[in-house]
Design a protein that fits this description.
There is one protein chain. The protein is mainly beta and 501 residues long. The chain has one domain: Single-stranded right-handed beta-helix, Pectin lyase-like (Pectate Lyase C-like, 3 Solenoid), CATH 2.160.20.10. Helices cover 7% and strands 46% of the residues. It has 3 helices and 34 strands. The chain has a 5-stranded parallel beta barrel with strand order 25-26-28-29-27. The protein is elongated. The N terminus is likely disordered.
Length: 501
Amino acid sequence: MPTALRLLAAAAALVVLPALRAQSGPLFDVRAFGARGDGAANDAAAINRAIAAAAGAGGGTVEFPAGRYLSGSVHLRSHVTLHLGAGAVLIASSAAGDYDPPEPNPWGDQQHYQDSGHSHWHDSLIWGEGLEDVAITGPGRIWGRGLTRVWDHDQPPQTVGNKTIALRDCRHVLLRDFTIQHGGWFGLLATGVDDLAVDHVMIDTNRDGMDIDCCHNVRVVNCSVNSPYDDGICLKSSFGLGYARATEDVTIADCLVCGYDEGTLLDGTRRHTDALVRDPTGRIKFGTESNGGFKAITITNCVFECCRGLALESVDGADLENVTISNLAMHRIYGAPIFLRLGERMRGPAGTPVGVLRHVLISDVVADDVGAMQGILITGVPGHAVEDVTLANLDLRFAGAGADPHELPELERDYPEPISFGPTPAWGLVLRHARGVVLRSVALRVAQADPRPAFYLQDLRNADLGDVRLPGGEAAIVQRDVTGLVTWRCAGLPDTARAAR
């Protein structure tokens, strides 16, 4: 095994082993505590009695044998594992009053620093707060049949829950080997959770797959997430805890994110026929909630299919830095295949300065069937530049024949969705309000001629472009307010420096 893979495996083991302690000790079969498992009777009380008994014994495993367990809110406890056995399905009730009410959170309810879904945890099918050594394991399934994908608590009384699993301020958590179907607003919302491992979990859902928010030491590995209506794997750093906390020390590896019709990842057909979702979301994203920062994050060996591209966004004051992303394969991409955005929406406490987006390495990316509307888009805002970004070993194939060139709007304070910018003024790459960008061994191809240039550079300082290959041998670069540009072995451009190799 290569050294890098050995290190990754060792790091994942450091997270998983503490959580595995929750699986030792006695077994507590939910049927012994009154669960019917017939899909008709509400088994929530019996499930919670089994969890309380396991916790009272100092820890253990709550076992769900084969059956269909209808339930409202399930309360996790420290040192307890929920094990969904083969053929076990935990089904979210659609009955009013079966869920705990959302707890008050002034930072969401009054200040609106983040969406309401990020501001409450108790209104969920499974939730835990202030816990340690907790696990949920498979191979069974969680079906969020009765969960809503919207915030419907503005007019009490509350009706149903809106998240499958919600965790706040927990440590040593393992989620492994189960499936989430139709997960509501979030399949997983983890906020302020440290030492979190998510391994071999499949999610096929109607909104976000998993949101990792204000968490430290996280490993998301071997997961598959289909989320046509929203993001697949999403890192956030909201103000939901009442203070700014970074999401840091995160590895996402060997995962699939996609935007096929809901349910078609689970049934294996992988269809995209939903006319309401012409540009499905699906992707891996940082943001939009971005108060506390994103630091020391690695993404590697991931596949994007039938979805939007990679998005890194800091728009609420976060420092997004020290990120390395490698070995991505993309197919059938809607919008920008790579989107880096430093903005100033500033949804958070007054006086918070604009953040930074810097020290990012993206390498070894291949993509085909990238839509005609947008190329790679990297942009800050006037006075706040994206800094020190390297793109290396990229091979991207665009559809071409897009719109005529036009001015790119600034949208400094808008929601930072790449599609909001409309067609980019270049079919291949736009760099705007940026410093110290490096390109190495980048090949951009287009299936049919496009009226736009390949590159559009604006307010760019000290960029270094080397070994850039474009169709027809002509760079077709538009430059506006560009200084310190170094080019070598770039199609259609003179060598301005001999780069050390």
